[in-house]
Amino acid sequence: MRSAALSYAEFSEPHFLEACTLCSKPLGNNSDIFMYRGNTPYCSQECRQEQIESDEARERRWKVSSSSSSSKKSTETSKKPATAVQTGTLVASN
Ligand SMILES: [Zn+2]
């Protein structure tokens, strides 16, 4: 009974704790595990730090891309009169 409870506790450990999220290095029982955002494990502080930095860079890029999407809208609106001009040219050449 006791061993069954023990194996159950082992089994209930999430699978994502088995390897480093960044470099996929296996995380053994004796190796340190560095957690990030509650559920992502890393084999070292360096791996975790790299993930944090890439996350911050992604967030910054997302903000930049979301602001550039507003400039996309202005390109779309400027496209409409260009199509009208093309149709007008077609009619004129006929
Ligand atoms: Zn790692």
TrEMBL record:
Residues annotated as domain FLZ-type: 15-59
One record GO biological process: response to absence of light
PROSITE patterns on file: ZF_FLZ
GO cellular component: cytosol; nucleus
Gene3D superfamilies found in the cross-reference section: Cysteine Rich Protein
One example GO MF annotation: kinase binding
Start-end of FLZ-type zinc fingers: 15-59
Protein keywords: Metal-binding, Zinc, Zinc-finger
Polar residues composition bias: residue spans: 84-94
InterPro entries found in the cross-reference section: FLZ1/2/3 (IPR044533), Zf-FLZ_dom (IPR007650)
Region spans: Disordered: 53-94
Entry keyword Transmembrane helix: no
A matching Pfam family: zf-FLZ
Family affiliation: Belongs to the FLZ family.
Name of the molecule in the record: FLZ-type domain-containing protein
Organism: Cynara cardunculus var. scolymus (Globe artichoke)
